[in-house]
Amino acid sequence: MLVMDVERREENGEAERRETPKSKSRVMGSWTPLAGAALLDRLRVTGRPRPLADPDRAALLQETIERGLAPGTAANQGGRRGQSPSSTPLVVTKDRLTRALSPGVHHDAIGLGEQPPTVSMACGALIDVLFRQLVTIGSIGDPMIDGLAALALDDRQTHLIGWIDSLSRTERGALSAEVDRQSTALVNRWPRLDPAWLPRTQLPIRADVAAGAVELSGRVDLAIGRPGLNVASVAIVEVKSGTRRPEHRKDLHFYALIETLRSPAPPFVVATYYTRTGELDVDPVSDELLAAAARRTVAGARALGQVTEAAAPSRLPDQQCGKSAVLPGCRPGRQRVTADMGGYRR
């Protein structure tokens, strides 16, 4: 049986993606981003043993979450007292989790409602689809043309495309220049991935906890490697076009938790790649990291459940959908959360 892993390298075609040796290390006191094989090695080699598959690990994490969502809490009841937990799960995503745990955030800001477009959001959306194109077919043509064409295939991006079209010549030129700069850096630095490593882009991942009352949900920019039966062999990478933020690592820890609950082994590493600067933040996955992610998820799910219950008496489900936590029986809101799960909030 062939186990897909990122230990094997693809030799053909790798050379043209490598930059000079100076681009792979600190030279003369100045830092230059990793590229090609050096970037891939940074993902592959963590300096720690890879986690072994252990059913008890996932069971313990699930028990931690379910014990934290004690009976009688709104989160453990799918958001409203008296509802069947399995019929209307409370959906927890990385964005909603971060907002729920942010001090002073009003409950209307916790949901996944439509956000006003910004230049940074447009840049993030374009870089996302261009990264997917690069990983899938290995090249990028005209970044703006290719990016807008890819966004046009997604009905959820109609409003953003219209907003981009409405920009002044100066504003659109600035956006185009930044997208060109970041996409060129991607092509020059990002390593070619062996198809045997099974690279998957925009991969949806989900795990149900608390007897289906809570659904942990995410969409991974890039997953490399097939879930191992004995040893961890999956790397998860998120791509960001903006600046580094502390919550980016917490987002990836949340993804590692979901993957651990749904697969025989956890991912061995999670990483964030910043296309603006070429920085690569790498976190080896450990039991301590997963336990902390489970505790954070409990705190966020409880906060989201309380928001849902507080909002329920004042608004009908169809009025509240997409603006706060999804209410029980709100099919449009549930569909909205699923659709927006991979939205571009860079």
What does the model show?
The structure is a single chain. With 346 residues, this protein is an alpha/beta fold. It has helices at 36-44, 55-68, 94-100, 119-137, 143-151, 158-165, 169-189, 246-262, 287-311, 317-320, 331-340; strands spanning 90-92, 200-209, 214-224, 235-240, 269-274, 280-284. β2 (200-209) and β3 form a beta hairpin. α2 runs parallel beside α9, α3 (94-100) packs across α9 and α8 (246-262) crosses α9. The longest helix has 25 residues, at 287-311. It is globular and about 55 Å long. The protein starts with 35 loop residues before the first helix and ends in a 6-residue tail after the last helix. Residues 1-28, 78-86, 310-329 and 340-345 have low confidence and may be disordered.
Quick summary:
The chain is built from eleven helices and six strands. With 346 residues, it is of the alpha/beta class. Strands 1, 2, 3, 4, 5 and 6 form a six-stranded mixed β-sheet that branches.
Present the secondary structure layout.
Layout: H1 36-44, H2 55-68, E1 90-92, H3 94-100, H4 119-137, H5 143-151, H6 158-165, H7 169-189, E2 200-209, E3 214-224, E4 235-240, H8 246-262, E5 269-274, E6 280-284, H9 287-311, H10 317-320, H11 331-340
Parallel strand pairs: 1-3, 4-5
Antiparallel strand pairs: 2-3, 3-4, 5-6
Pattern of helices and strands: HHEHHHHHEEEHEEHHH
Tally of alpha and pi helices: 11
Number of domains: 2
Helix content: 40-55%
Q: Classify the secondary structure makeup into a structural class.
A: alpha/beta
Q: Look at the structure and give the mean pLDDT.
A: 80
Main sheet? Answer: 6 strands, mixed
Query: Can you count the beta strands?
Result: 6
Shape summary = globular
First CA to last CA: what distance? 39 Å
Low-confidence segments: 1-28, 78-86, 310-329, 340-345
Share in β-strands: 5-15%
Gyration radius, in Å:
21 Å
